[in-house]
Write a structure and sequence with these properties.
The protein has three helices and six strands; from the N terminus they run H-E-E-E-H-E-E-E-H. It has about 150 residues and is of the alpha+beta class. The relative contact order is 0.09.
Length: about 150
């Protein structure tokens, strides 16, 4: 209220039933960007997801590699691997990928990395030396760090 002037009214629209139900029903929080202006509320995705939408439930995206347990499955593996989330809008598709020249991928888990030193083309692999000597190459131990 005000005397002799217009009142400065504010309203947190998130306290109203419809915006609150829209956001909370989607598992999201409601924020009102400007309490003096109508229709400025938005739904915001909970961390670690990202996304927001004005006046509606948001489309949430989650980089599953930002989840510490998922990242650790890859980065703390021996040998170290890379965590990749190909589609942040899809849950459960993150994967660990072995570093080249090793090969191997696993969805939702640590990958089993394989290094066939005869098939791989790398500085420490045996393939080039065998070819240069006119010999065939056979790798009896394809585990990364194996003795060949």
């Amino acid at each position: 209220s005000a005397t002799g002037a217009a009142a400065n009214c504010t309203l947190d629209e998130c306290l109203l039933a419809a915006p609150n139900a829209t956001c909370s029903g989607a598992g999201q929080s409601c924020t009102d960007g400007d309490l003096r202006v109508r229709d400025t509320w938005q739904c915001v995705c909970p961390a670690p997801s990202t996304g927001s939408a004005a006046g509606a439930a948001a489309e949430c995206a989650t980089d599953e590699c930002a989840v510490p347990e998922n990242a650790a499955a890859c980065t703390e593996a021996v040998p170290m691997q890379t965590c990749v989330d190909p589609d942040t809008a899809v849950d459960g598709d993150w994967r660990c990928e072995c570093a080249a020249p090793a090969t191997g991928v696993a969805v939702g888990a640590t990958a089993e990395c394989v290094l066939d030193e005869c098939a791989a083309d790398c500085a420490t692999c045996a393939r080039g030396a065998c070819i240069d000597a006119g010999q065939e190459c056979e790798d009896a131990d394809t585990s990364v760090g194996g003795t060949g």
